[in-house]
Amino acid sequence: MVHSTLQQPSVDALETIVSDLLDLQHELTPSFVPIRPSIPTALEFLRQVHTNFPVIYRAAAFDWPAFNPTSGRRWSKQYLLDRLRDTTVSVAETPLGNADAPLDGMFVQPHTSHLPFPQFMDKLLDLDADTVCYMQSQNNNMPTEFPQLLDDVAMDITWATEALNSKPEAANLWIGSSRSTTSLHKDPYENLHVQVLGQKVFKLISPAEHICVKESMLTKATYQKLSVGFNLTAETERQPWPTLDPDAVDSRDYWQSKVRVLEVVLNPGDILYLPALWYHKVIQVSDKEGLCCSVNYWYDMDFTGPLWQFANFVQSISNSLTGVDHNSDCVKDDNI
Amino acid sequence: MVHSTLQQPSVDALETIVSDLLDLQHELTPSFVPIRPSIPTALEFLRQVHTNFPVIYRAAAFDWPAFNPTSGRRWSKQYLLDRLRDTTVSVAETPLGNADAPLDGMFVQPHTSHLPFPQFMDKLLDLDADTVCYMQSQNNNMPTEFPQLLDDVAMDITWATEALNSKPEAANLWIGSSRSTTSLHKDPYENLHVQVLGQKVFKLISPAEHICVKESMLTKATYQKLSVGFNLTAETERQPWPTLDPDAVDSRDYWQSKVRVLEVVLNPGDILYLPALWYHKVIQVSDKEGLCCSVNYWYDMDFTGPLWQFANFVQSISNSLTGVDHNSDCVKDDNI
């Protein structure tokens, strides 16, 4: 077989191609996240999924007992304490509210503890505590760990289940406070995020904009809780992670100057459709009792269609230009 | 602003990335076109569109009067002659059945004539004629030029119209014979192709495989019919066009050895979903009266989603590697 004889494209040519992709994304899609006043039909939702663009369904979960003052199941600090007094929960503990986040060239993971729910709530609501707690286990905890709450919420989002022809892969309960932030990352799931208590602010970046998110190979490290404070233990393994903070974009940097960050504020009852492979940073805003609480549903994305291939190809090309090598221990990301 | 300072990726690294994309496409998608025994719901069809993968809906148009022996509108040579005896049709004429096709470094377009339908049929069915005729105008001719046939066929494909939330952009009637072939190309439409008389054989290649289709910048040329034979007049303008013949793949060539050509045989009553931006070559097989006849429906594709960006980005990267420049007059495609 005659092997491929390709030409060497110049860096300028490749930069133009990647830059054109960003321009195309920005020209063809809205510069804001649309808000719909009511729930969609399955067909309308699937059209949204097909565009791979986020949308807010305003107040679309208000029929849940968790929101209904007359249901006897309306969520509040006291209601959760009553229901979960005998439940042990898995809690991420960090010094800075930074579970699964980049820090000084490391990818830091939380100390995980298992606490009785009332004790977790005490720690969560103590704003002076030297440890920041976040119940964020993301392991389908809603049906498996919180059966007492299942009558309060939906087991799935029916129009999404019908559209995508599958039940959610996971339903997760999140309980945190303003002290925790989730750093920019992406998930290979179609995500429906329902806000219950407090607010969440999402900062969203499309998969096309991979070159703008400053992906780097970070050394994995895990917090270990000491009697006072934390120790941070580095591992040998490394992990690719976007290191851009959408709230600290440096407009003097060429690629950062080109990124489009979409901001979404999710209020109680709102459902955010967060499309598969979109980068998202999540900031929490506690309610007046100090709580920020959500339930999200992860549906399998379609791995056979253009999105998965597109995101992989864009990532590979941009990493080849910025010197990030997922398979190498030699990372040169000075130029990002 | 600090301008981007990117690294120069090696040709080998880029070749690996493009090659990995082909492998991913082949691993994640079927190696054949699925056949469904019945029409889909709108939701099922939209899921198919979302995967951007072709499918045949077997015998899905058999409820059309054009297929029904008792309708009095069943299509045949005589029926079409009766209905269209007073209609003038736009006909592509070529010496080789090669309208809109690559030929010796040129992109050749047909001589277009306007003939009374009976005269077109005479020429089409004369297998010894020195001119090959094909009624292939693709300008929404079905409703505009053939109102006499509208009761015989569907005005749209209802489940596609519901799924895509729009009427077709165009419905086209095609009347040809085994003597014409449509060369490999792509269209920016979601396409539903209904076979009525004879068969069509489609050779399909996914958008991910752009580097395999040997896109080249070809000089435009148009056939002009002379009293005997044709003259071919070249223009100054050039046109990018895939020059691969899926029926003459050179397995000694690196990229051609990697291409996956999906073959589909469409019988009367079958509907092919041909996804937007898929390359397709179309071979016609006449029925026993010498006719090959189809109706196709073009629906707008979603330009805001990942597919359009993906196909553009893949095309740009692969053209940068093979030296094809859409904006330049200097083409170096020796290396494809």
Kindly summarize this structure in a few lines.
The structure is a homodimer of 336-residue chains. Helices cover 23% and strands 31% of the residues of chain A.
Walk me through what this model shows:
The structure is a homodimer of 336-residue chains. Chain A has 336 residues and is α+β, with helices and mostly antiparallel strands. The first copy, chain A, is built from eight helices and 17 strands. Chain A has helices at residues 11-28, 42-51, 77-83, 117-125, 141-145, 158-164, 254-258, 306-322; strands spanning 35-36, 55-57, 88-94, 101-103, 106-109, 111-116, 132-134, 170-176, 181-185, 189-197, 199-205, 215-225, 230-242, 262-266, 271-274, 279-285, 292-300. In chain A, the strands form four sheets. The first copy, chain A, has a six-stranded mixed β-sheet. In chain A, strands 4-5-12-13 form a four-stranded mixed β-sheet, with no helix packed on it. In chain A, β12 and β13 form a beta hairpin. In chain A, α2 crosses α6 (158-164). Chain A is globular. Chains A and B meet through α1, α2, α7 and α8 of A and α1, α2, α7 and α8 of B.
Helices and strands in order, then pairings?
The structure is a homodimer of 336-residue chains.
Chain A: H1 11-28, E1 35-36, H2 42-51, E2 55-57, H3 77-83, E3 88-94, E4 101-103, E5 106-109, E6 111-116, H4 117-125, E7 132-134, H5 141-145, H6 158-164, E8 170-176, E9 181-185, E10 189-197, E11 199-205, E12 215-225, E13 230-242, H7 254-258, E14 262-266, E15 271-274, E16 279-285, E17 292-300, H8 306-322
Parallel strand pairs in A: 1-2, 5-12
Antiparallel strand pairs in A: 2-15, 3-6, 3-7, 4-5, 8-17, 9-16, 10-15, 10-17, 11-14, 11-16, 12-13
